[in-house]
Amino acid sequence: MSTLELQLTAELGLQAVALIKASDDPLNAFVALSQDLPKYAAALARNVEVPEDILATAMRLSVQHPFGPSFIINGRIIKETELNAFG
C-alpha cells in the first residue's frame, strides 16, 4: 500500500462513524456501509471530514482502553480472544 493510500485510510473507521452519525437514517447507513465497505471506502476516505467531537471521543477511548483490537459494546470491552463465530 502506498503512503497516500495509508494516509487516506488511516481514519476510515472514524469517517464511517461520522457518515453514519450524520445520516438521516443511521441504521440504514450502517447496514449499507457494513455490507459493502470496499465499494464506499475510497469515497469515505476522500470526502468525509471527521468532526472534532468524534475525534475527541476516539482519543479519549483510546487512552482509557488501550487494549489493541477489541470492540466496546455498551461500555464493555470485548477482546479479540472472546469472539466466537458460533455464539
Please characterize this protein's 3D structure.
By secondary structure, the protein is mainly alpha-helical. It has two domains: 50 residues, no CATH class; 33 residues, no CATH class. Helix content is 60%, strand content 9%. It is built from five helices and two strands, in the order αααααββ. β1 and β2 form a beta hairpin. The model has no long low-confidence stretch (mean pLDDT 82).
Keywords:
5 helices; mainly alpha; two-stranded antiparallel ribbon; 87 residues; 60% helix
| Order of helix and strand elements from N to C terminus | HHHHHEE
Average pLDDT over all residues:
82
The best one-word shape is globular
Number of helices: 5
As a whole number of angstroms, the C-alpha radius of gyration is: 14 Å
Structural class per helix/strand content? mainly alpha
Could you describe the largest sheet, including whether it forms a barrel?
2 strands, antiparallel
Task: Write the SSE topology.
Elements: H1 3-9, H2 12-22, H3 26-35, H4 37-47, H5 52-64, E1 70-73, E2 76-79
Antiparallel strand pairs: 1-2
Helix pairs in contact: 2-3
